[in-house]
Specification:
10 helices, mainly alpha, two-stranded antiparallel sheet, about 240 residues, about 35% helix
């Protein structure tokens, strides 16, 4: 039985611990899953992972497929959110009361014993209320596990030798993008006046995106501001 999709939470101002009051505060279970001690400072963990995503990016973003495949399942799986865990536990309780699974099938003795054990051992405090966005971004969308590239910081998977790491866009690159996109905003698909032309990194530069024509598109300045460094559009389901 799959849990409900994880909820996205907005960031809030930093607190004295170096993490936000909810969205970026790290639950001990998240730290343990990533190989840290439960009492490791939030700021240390977040700083470490912030550095990792600046140095490298998911191979699936660049080469459009995962070179690891099912091996991803050997890497850490972040714990489900507390709200999802509670919902899942309520499902077990409902099955025990009705004597049937959600599909309508009868609850056999083996599953009844398993569900009873899960309900008896359940403690909502064992699950995080939120997982920081920086960690959500590095999780595999297919398997849910932390992408091996980030977990082991495996630079051999990165195409740094041929990548333009500078954020500055060379003039010849700008010309190629303008000619290719025909001065039409690639977000709203409307003509862009000369004084509103901007160039957007499709994979954000802050997330390791290269400054190449293939990773750039012409956009309105306002459309670019709205996008910021989000990956939602790039990772949206077809």
């Amino acid at each position: 039985m799959e849990s409900a999709p994880r909820r996205q939470l907005k960031r809030s101002p930093l607190d004295a611990r170096g993490a936000t009051t909810l969205a970026d505060r790290l639950h001990a279970s998240v730290k343990v899953a990533l190989g840290y001690k439960p009492d490791s400072p939030d700021s240390q963990v977040l700083s470490d992972w912030g550095r990792r995503i600046r140095q490298i990016c998911k191979p699936c973003w660049e080469i459009k497929y995962c070179p690891y495949g099912p091996l991803v399942e050997q890497f850490p799986l972040l714990p489900p959110l507390r709200a999802d865990a509670i919902e899942h536990n309520e499902y077990f309780s409902q099955c025990l009361k009705s004597g049937r699974l959600g599909s309508g099938e009868p609850l056999d003795d083996e599953r009844r014993e398993e569900f009873e054990q899960r309900v008896a051992e359940f403690n909502a405090e064992d699950y995080p209320e939120a997982v920081p966005q920086v960690l959500q971004d590095v999780s595999c969308r297919v398997f849910g596990h932390v992408c091996p590239v980030f977990f082991v910081a495996e630079l051999a998977t990165e195409t740094r030798a041929t990548r333009r790491m500078s954020r500055a866009i060379p003039h010849e690159v700008m010309l190629k993008v303008v000619r290719r996109d025909g001065q039409i905003c690639q977000i709203c698909h409307q003509p862009v006046p000369d004084n509103q032309v901007e160039f957007d990194h499709i994979i954000p530069w802050s997330r390791g995106g290269p400054t190449t024509p293939e990773n750039l598109r012409l956009v309105h300045s306002e459309c670019n501001r709205r996008k910021r460094d989000a990956l939602d559009e790039l990772l949206a389901e077809d």
